[in-house]
Every structure is written in C-alpha cells, then in structure tokens.
Automatic annotation (TrEMBL):
Entry coiled-coil feature ranges: none
All residue ranges annotated as the RNA polymerase sigma-70 domain in the record: 49-62
Region of interest (Sigma-70 factor domain-4), residue spans: 189-237
Keywords annotated in UniProt: Cytoplasm, DNA-binding, Sigma factor, Transcription, Transcription regulation
Motif residue range(s): Interaction with polymerase core subunit RpoC: 49-52
UniProt region (Sigma-70 factor domain-2), positions on chain: 22-94
Family: Belongs to the sigma-70 factor family. FliA subfamily.
Subcellular location field: Cytoplasm
Cellular component terms (Gene Ontology): cytoplasm
Highest taxon listed in the record's lineage: Bacteria
DNA-binding region ranges: 211-230
Any GO BP: DNA-templated transcription initiation
Protein name, per record: RNA polymerase sigma factor FliA
Length: 253
C-alpha cells in the first residue's frame, strides 16, 4: 500500500529529503527521454511539449515512489515520464486520419496474405492485396513510420522491474494477469518475425540505435530501415489481433 510511511521510507532509500529533491535530481532524465522519443517522431512534434508532459510524470513519480518495491527511483520515474509523454502524444493526435486508415488496411492485408500462404507476407504480396503498386505500399509505410509509438521495451527490457512495480500499485489482479498474457503473446509474435525485421526492432528499441546507425549496420539507407521497422510493427499488429482492442487500459502501447 502506498502510505505516507512507505513513501518516507522510499525517500530515505533514495538518499533524498523528499519528493522535491527527487524531482530536482532527475530533471535531466526528462530531457533525455524527450529527446530519445523525438528521434521517432515527425518534425511537427515539439520537444518542449514532451518535456512539459514528462515533468508532470516526474512529479507524480516523486509523490508516489515506494523504495521497498525493488526498483530504483530513476527506473520507476522513467516509466512514469515516458508514459506521460506518450499520453500527451495520444491526446494531441497529430497523425492524419488517412495514415490511421492506411495502417489498418496494411495490417488487414498482412493478416489475409499470411492466413492464405501460411508464412510471413512479403511486400509485393501485401501491395497486391492492397491493390496498389509496391512503391505506393512503401510510401504508406513511410507515412506511418513516425506516427506510431510501440513500447517494445516493456517486454523484458531494462525497465521491466519498474513496470512490475507500476502493475503492482495500479492494476487489479485480473489486469495484471491480462497484461502478463499479452506480453507473452507479444514476445511470441516478436520471435516469429522475419529475421531482418526482428533485428531492426531489437536494434531500435532495445539497443536504442537511431535509424541512421541501424542503416550502417545493415548497409541500407535510413529510409529503408524506417520501412522495415514500420512493416514489422504492422505485422505485429496483424498477429496480435483482438489484444489491441484493450491496449490502452493495459498500458502496453
């Protein structure tokens, strides 16, 4: 239970005098997370908006932190800060409706092709199912690339410890079970991706390389890396299906 006594104990373990000091000591964490997210977003998003939302998340984290749950404050706050920024992006909804519509069409086309062929759908097959040239399909992927936040780092990533703390404090037992089952499904879907798509997601979300750096590793252009990442995300959405209907409440995406 998040009682005043537990919070005071948490501040003592963190080596601070209270929430104000925790906030002051971790402002740079907000800036770092904001700039990391900016590398994944279109130019229309302002970093100051992310920082402002992240500061709200940091303040809430400082107020709610319990030091006895096994996570450091920086780890716990990182989840809160990132979540606050993503919530702000969702509220802003800067993505054109046509991009959302085409994204759904791509996922549906992938589902259809993979059900028919019994294997991962290839780009020409997806384009044919969509009724568009391959070049148009790639453009649809490009349009989508900066318009989707997909928190793969919450599946066994370095912040998993804090994620468990958040679950324990904020979710009912049934929601924790659903979240765990979803993560298992997501981990399985990741393992079934084509090798190159799996590698790109790992380098991008786990190793935190940017698109240019991944392109250097794979010896392809930055634009091609963006397309591979976008296609992988659509493939995951197609395979996870009905899980995504409740994704907001599970706090996975």
């Amino acid at each position: 239970m998040n009682t005043p006594k537990n919070r005071l104990s948490g501040y003592a373990r963190a080596g601070t005098g209270g929430p104000d000091q925790l906030v002051a000591d971790h402002v740079e964490l907000v800036n770092r997370i904001a700039h990391h997210l900016m590398a994944r977003l279109p130019a229309s998003v302002q970093v100051d908006d992310l920082v402002q939302a992240g500061m709200v998340g940091l303040i809430e984290a400082a107020r709610q932190f319990e030091g006895g749950q096994g996570a450091t404050f920086a780890t716990y706050a990182g989840i809160r800060i990132r979540g606050a920024m993503i919530d702000e992006l969702r509220r802003s909804d800067w993505t054109p409706r046509s991009v959302h519509r085409n994204s759904r069409r791509i996922s549906e086309a992938m589902q259809t092709v993979e059900a028919r062929e019994g294997r991962a759908a290839r780009a020409p097959e997806i384009a044919e199912e969509l009724g568009v040239p391959v070049e148009t399909y790639y453009q649809m992927l490009d349009d989508h690339a900066g318009a989707h936040l997909f928190a793969l780092d919450e599946v066994g990533g370095p912040e998993g410890e804090a994620d468990r703390v958040l679950e324990g404090q904020e979710q009912s037992p049934s929601r924790r079970i659903e979240a765990g089952e979803f993560r298992e499904e997501l981990a399985g879907a990741l393992g079934d991706l084509p090798e190159r798509e799996r590698l790109v997601l790992n380098l991008y979300y786990t190793e935190e390389l940017n698109l240019r750096e991944i392109g250097a590793v794979l010896d392809v252009t930055e634009s091609r890396v963006s397309q591979i990442r976008s296609q992988a995300v659509h493939r995951l959405r197609a395979r996870l299906g009905s899980w995504l209907e409740d994704v907001e409440s599970l706090q996975i995406f």
